Amino acid sequence: MSNKLKLGLFLFFIGFLGVLTLLTVTLPLDTLPPEAIKGLSPVMIKLLVLANPAMLLILAVVVGTLLHDKVKLDTPLISRLLGIDSNNPITFLEQLKYGVLLGLLGGVTAVAIQAIFAPFIPQEFVEMGKKMQMTTLARFGYGGITEELLMRFGFMTLIVWLVFLFNKKLGDSTYWTGIILATLLFALGHLPVVFSAVAQPSVALLAYVIVGNSIVGVAFGWLYWKKGLESAFWAHICAHAAMLLSEHLKDLI
């Protein structure tokens, strides 16, 4: 088995485990058209919902596996675990340190942004958020692992490679272009949910969704570039941990 195939299969496996954590999430079935779910059990609906992220995961893993080494983006720890040669000398502890620190900082920043924009968030959007609340397992599994494979390993790698083809350079601007575009795509991907919950969302609400979902993505992208994909995994998980802790503290108060 080739090294690329070995890496791709492993990344798809852990990413698909993340997709499966979505089965723990309660779907707001009342927001779906009745004719679209007629005759389907809640379990069948959930399984159908998994199809889209699973297909996107396959695409992201294929793209990332084929292109990441061409633009010096790496999965050093996973590669070493799979017996794949990696010239990246970064250690697990360094990846963990940077991932945890930036992840916690990003989570705290996201909580602060939420507090700042709270007066501008309409109640119907808040109610939609409660109906679509991610479980802790889904936040860590799908958010921490699968989303990083989709947005960083897949999309960011592709953008960096395309920019590299154009300018023939792997300078900082090439990587920052990939980081920013991947982050913006992730943030803009939340807008359909906003429009489904609020008929005429305000500029403040749109700004909150975009800024709130962008601020941590920049940190995750930088970690993938500088410290390896595994560090971005840790950061995303720790950001969710910080936000969960904030939610529990808020309930106690």
User: How much strand content do the residues show?
Assistant: under 5%
Largest sheet: none
**How do the SSEs run, as a string of H and E?**
HHHHHHHHHHH
- The end-to-end distance, rounded to whole angstroms, is 55 Å
Tell me the radius of gyration: 19 Å
| Shape label | globular
Mean pLDDT: 88
Fraction of helical residues: over 70%
Uncertain spans: none
Please write out the topology:
Elements: H1 3-20, H2 34-37, H3 42-67, H4 76-81, H5 92-117, H6 123-131, H7 136-167, H8 172-188, H9 191-197, H10 203-227, H11 229-252
Which key features would you list for this structure?
253 residues; mainly alpha; 11 helices; 77% helix; globular
Structure characterization notes:
The chain has eleven helices and no strands. The protein is mostly helical. It has helices spanning 3-20, 34-37, 42-67, 76-81, 92-117, 123-131, 136-167, 172-188, 191-197, 203-227, 229-252.
